[in-house]
């Protein structure tokens, strides 16, 4: 309708009007200040203006180098890390896209964390809209990022609907809790616009002052800007608004009951042609954002036929361009209205049609499944679902699990399709570290007739899950039964034979396990099963290492890693051969490559989404560093292990808790060790861990006795541990306990109490065992030094202790060198200068290891023994630059160069989780909040040094 002034009242209807949110815009801009990261969460009902607010703030935000933006979509909730992958699309390489297409959550997540580090090298903003629809994997990764977000110049702006908050997923609830707990969350709640603002928006749209009747229309919008805008535009389109000569906007449309936003949207859609509305309905089924290619596929028409319809939809303001090959609805409420206009049975049948067409076009299985799962399941769908589940198992495990679950629901127990689905679910649970669920599922499937092509994988899942549950006798029996089965193919029997030795090993049958490892390796090589060969070789190498046959151990494990590297599969890395080789080489005194091997173990496990493998690499890495690294580095590795555990059944908790207790004791004293020692089972169950490192359990338990101090009690704990390790032929773990046990035995014997005779006998036994171990490994200096030190302490021969100290001085074993030097200084008679030199050497090595409590304790012992130490060393400060360890100083220097966590990890040959721990420790010690502040401090120190 034409106005009295000659202007048309529809001229302004496409104008973007944003008014009335100045305080909220200011809060968003203020959140960008500073060098520390945070999350601003914009909350409000649908259409309240969350996106407009964020865009307005971003337009006025100065100094932003990188802006990444994505919106979650209800259709994408099954797409693993979909929200973050969309946000980082501009930074993804072709390799990243291939990784996302075929790999797993863990590998993609690590890559995304690397991209976050790169983006945050300069101030950056990541906008993540509609978090109520975010996929669980993206939310989990954001929760992990929360550990280090405060260190980065990174602002994350999220949005979510207020009405959806009570329906938040567990992952979103967990993320918000962590952010709040760490004081990283800034909520910005959007309420209704004021009447004055609504009036101003209406006047902008109509070009006139609003009259009384139009004002009543405005009131019905309830302060919702989208509702208001769509209603006024609908009135303008209908020609129901005029502007008179006095500039007053009038309407002759009656004001009835308050319309819904959906009603207003449908009126707006009613102005489109029927083909365009039908096209938009198809697009709505694809999601809030959709691929133009997929839209062409599902409607079954050439692109040339769709162009005029898309132009009409764009002109009407329903669609917008999102990115390469991506279009999106201007507002999600438009998509919702289109979907709700379709009856549920019609929607379901359209979903099935879309799934068929997308599958025929070879679209990713997870995308096809997202539509099929929303259709009514029919019997002919079940085999299709199984095929899609196998295709989605790695890239979208949640979708695969839902498909398998649907098949199980729709079939009777024992149906071959049901058995296949249960087998898939069991395998997925095992890979995720949920051994109990995996074994229960596999057991239920094995009660029925199992298809021959499923039996091999299902039986392997079952036996491996049993062992991870510590049901070792059952795992042994089942594996050996399948290894002898004529039903399985030779390659599958070889896999069972190769595995069967592992539960025997955990049960303490080292001879039986060795026999099966040899037979399994030979059979696997003969039939060409590389994964089984690597598994058997790794077992043989682990047993040889435990027994102290170090040349054999390193040879077998070197072969295992070579096989795994040539044939990199899940099966070939399942026993983590790279990590085991690192530990064996450390035992053999050949440490030059161990950190690189540990990194290779982490990378290989991440590539296959093998969380247990990553966990094991950190556990064995901590054991390696406990021998040849600093206590701070060891603790960082333990923290990395702890960050992985989560809901996993597999934890390797015995050695880890014991090692934590020992590290805490050496850094802060026995009282500090109590927290961890108290978590250990006072009667350790061998079934839970019988591999290398079991000595740490007993060392950890002894810390409670040392807190007394009660030499008799400590002697009892260590002797019990020694006997268990000796009886189990765990020679290298015996070597770990040997010197401390003999020292405590001598203290007990010198007290001349009732335990004197058994204590002396125990010392002699330790001496005999460790001397024999050193003789079997003549080229391993630290074993020879341990045997000499044990003999020196057992027999009271100080010269042997001095010689042991000399041998250890040239090795990276700082704690062992310090302890041996300390004992030598304390027992060496009448050679004051030599005693002082040994005492100072002990203090220096304790300092290099970061054993602050040991420095204090040893100083006290030297003073009581009358040993003057010329260069008193202050205990390491707990804060300030002097509090940093060598590794932390290196990390600080690399941070100052702008290196990202992955780059630092590569430089130091550690994992990014370990680097995260180091950076957090550095910032805590220096009282800083961010990497930027750390870089500035390092630069100032460098300038001052000049």
What does this structure look like?
This protein has 946 residues and is mainly alpha-helical. The chain has a five-stranded parallel beta sheet with strand order 2-3-4-1-5. Helix 20 runs antiparallel to helix 21 (435-446), helix 20 (416-431) runs parallel beside helix 22 and helix 33 runs antiparallel to helix 34 (670-677).
Q: Overall mean pLDDT score?
A: 88
User: Structural class of the helices, strands and pairings?
Assistant: mainly alpha
Rg (CA only): 34 Å
State the end-to-end distance: 78 Å
Described by strand count, sense and barrel closure, the largest sheet is: 5 strands, parallel
Number of strands: 11
Helix tally equals 47
Strand content: 5-15%
Main β-sheet, spatial strand arrangement: 2-3-4-1-5
* Percentage of residues in helical conformation: 55-70%
What is the approximate shape?
Answer: globular
* Uncertain residue segments: 1-15
Helix and strand layout, with pairings?
Blueprint: H1 22-31, E1 38-44, H2 50-59, E2 66-71, H3 82-87, H4 94-102, H5 105-119, E3 124-129, H6 136-145, E4 154-161, H7 170-181, E5 185-189, H8 195-206, E6 209-210, H9 212-220, H10 225-237, E7 241-243, E8 248-251, H11 261-269, H12 274-286, E9 289-291, H13 292-299, H14 303-315, E10 319-323, E11 326-329, H15 332-340, H16 344-360, H17 365-372, H18 382-392, H19 397-410, H20 416-431, H21 435-446, H22 452-468, H23 472-483, H24 490-506, H25 510-527, H26 530-547, H27 550-566, H28 570-573, H29 577-587, H30 594-607, H31 611-628, H32 631-645, H33 653-668, H34 670-677, H35 695-706, H36 711-727, H37 731-750, H38 756-776, H39 781-795, H40 798-809, H41 814-827, H42 832-849, H43 852-864, H44 886-896, H45 901-908, H46 912-926, H47 931-945
Parallel strand pairs: 1-4, 1-5, 2-3, 3-4, 6-8
Antiparallel strand pairs: 7-8, 9-11, 10-11
């Amino acid at each position: 309708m034409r106005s009295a002034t000659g202007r048309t009242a529809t001229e302004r209807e496409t104008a973007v009007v944003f008014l009335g949110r100045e305080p909220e815009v200011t809060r968003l801009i203020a959140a960008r200040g500073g060098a520390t990261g945070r999350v601003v969460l914009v909350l409000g009902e649908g259409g309240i203006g969350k996106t407009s607010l964020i865009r307005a703030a971003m337009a006025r935000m100065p100094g932003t180098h990188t802006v990444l933006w994505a919106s979650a979509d209800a259709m994408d909730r099954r797409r693993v890390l979909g929200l973050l992958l969309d946000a980082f699309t501009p930074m993804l390489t072709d390799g990243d896209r291939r990784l996302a297409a075929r790999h797993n959550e863990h590998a993609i997540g690590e890559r995304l964390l690397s991209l976050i580090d790169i983006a945050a090298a300069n101030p950056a903003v990541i906008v993540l809209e509609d978090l109520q629809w975010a996929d669980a994997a993206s939310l989990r990764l954001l929760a992990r990022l929360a550990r280090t977000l405060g260190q980065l110049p990174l602002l994350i702006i999220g949005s979510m609907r207020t009405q959806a908050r009570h329906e938040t997923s567990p992952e979103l609830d967990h993320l918000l809790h962590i952010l709040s707990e760490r004081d990283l969350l800034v909520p910005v709640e959007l309420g209704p616009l004021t009447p004055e603002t609504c009036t101003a928006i209406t006047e902008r749209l109509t070009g006139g002052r609003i009259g009384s009747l139009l004002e009543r229309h405005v009131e019905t919008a309830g302060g919702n800007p989208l509702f208001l805008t769509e209603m006024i535009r609908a009135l303008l389109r209908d020609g129901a608004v005029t502007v008179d000569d006095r500039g007053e906007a009038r309407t002759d449309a009656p004001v009835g009951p308050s319309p819904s936003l959906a009603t207003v949207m449908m009126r707006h859609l009613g102005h489109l042609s029927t083909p365009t509305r039908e096209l938009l309905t198809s697009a709505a089924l694809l999601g809030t954002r959709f691929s133009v290619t997929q839209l062409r596929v599902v409607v079954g028409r050439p692109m040339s036929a769709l162009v005029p319809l898309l132009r009409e939809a764009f002109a009407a303001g329903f669609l917008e361009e999102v990115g390469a090959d991506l279009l999106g609805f201007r507002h999600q409420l438009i998509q919702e209205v289109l979907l709700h206009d379709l009856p549920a049975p019609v929607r379901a049948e359209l979903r099935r049609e879309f799934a068929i067409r997308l599958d025929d076009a070879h679209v990713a299985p997870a995308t096809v499944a997202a539509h099929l799962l929303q259709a009514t399941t029919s019997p002919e769908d079940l085999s299709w679902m199984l095929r899609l589940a196998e295709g989605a198992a790695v890239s979208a495990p949640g979708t695969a699990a839902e498909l398998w679950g649907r098949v199980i629901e729709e079939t009777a127990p024992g149906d071959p399709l049901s058995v296949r689905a249960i087998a898939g679910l069991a395998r997925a649970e095992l890979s995720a570290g949920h051994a109990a669920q995996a074994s229960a599922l596999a057991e239920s499937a094995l009660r029925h007739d199992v298809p021959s092509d499923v039996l091999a994988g299902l039986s392997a899942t079952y036996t491996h899950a049993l062992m991870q549950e510590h049901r070792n006798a059952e795992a042994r029996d089942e594996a050996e039964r399948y290894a002898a089965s004529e039903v399985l193919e030779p390659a599958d029997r070889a896999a069972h034979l190769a595995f069967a030795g592992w539960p025997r090993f955990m049960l303490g049958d080292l001879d039986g396990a060795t026999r099966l490892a040899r037979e399994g390796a030979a059979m696997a090589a003969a039939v060409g099963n590389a994964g089984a060969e690597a598994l058997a070789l790794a077992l043989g190498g682990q047993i040889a290492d435990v027994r102290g046959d170090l040349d054999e151990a390193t040879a077998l494990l070197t072969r295992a890693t070579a096989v795994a590297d040539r044939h990199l599969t899940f099966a070939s890395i399942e026993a983590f051969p790279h990590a085991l080789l690192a530990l064996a080489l450390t035992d053999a005194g050949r440490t030059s490559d161990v950190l690189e091997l540990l990194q290779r173990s982490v990378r290989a496990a991440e590539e296959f989404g093998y969380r247990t493998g990553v966990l094991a690499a950190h556990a064995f890495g901590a054991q390696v560093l406990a021998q040849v690294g600093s206590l701070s580095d060891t603790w960082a590795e333990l923290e990395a292990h702890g960050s992985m555990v989560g809901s996993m059944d597999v934890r390797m908790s015995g050695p880890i808790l014991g090692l934590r207790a020992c590290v805490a004791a050496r850094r802060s004293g026995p009282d500090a060790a109590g927290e961890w020692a108290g978590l250990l089972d006072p009667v350790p169950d061998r079934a839970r861990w019988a591999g290398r490192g079991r000595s740490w359990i007993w060392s950890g338990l002894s810390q409670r006795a040392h807190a007394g101090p009660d030499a008799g009690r400590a002697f009892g704990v260590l002797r019990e541990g020694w006997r268990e390790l000796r009886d189990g032929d765990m020679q290298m773990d015996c070597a770990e306990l040997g010197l401390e046990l003999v020292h405590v035995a001598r203290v007990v014997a010198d007290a001349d109490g009732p335990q004197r005779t058994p204590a002396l006998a125990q010392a002699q036994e330790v001496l005999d065992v460790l001397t024999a171990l050193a003789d079997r490994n003549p080229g391993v200096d630290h074993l020879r030094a341990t045997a000499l030190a044990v003999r020196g302490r057992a027999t009271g021969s100080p010269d042997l202790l001095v010689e042991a100290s000399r041998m250890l001085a040239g090795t990276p074993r700082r704690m062992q060198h310090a302890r041996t030097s300390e004992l030598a200084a304390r027992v060496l008679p009448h050679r004051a200068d030599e005693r002082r030199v040994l005492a100072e050497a002990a203090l220096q090595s304790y300092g290099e290891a970061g054993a602050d409590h040991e420095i204090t304790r040893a100083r006290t012992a030297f003073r009581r023994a009358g040993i003057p130490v010329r260069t008193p060393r202050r205990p390491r400060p707990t804060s300030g630059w002097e509090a940093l360890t060598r590794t932390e100083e290196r990390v600080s220097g690399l941070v100052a160069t702008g290196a990202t966590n992955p780059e630092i990890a590569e430089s130091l040959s550690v994992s990014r989780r370990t680097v995260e721990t180091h950076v957090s420790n550095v910032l805590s010690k220096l009282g800083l909040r961010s990497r930027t502040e750390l870089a500035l401090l390092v630069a100032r120190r460098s300038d001052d040094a000049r």
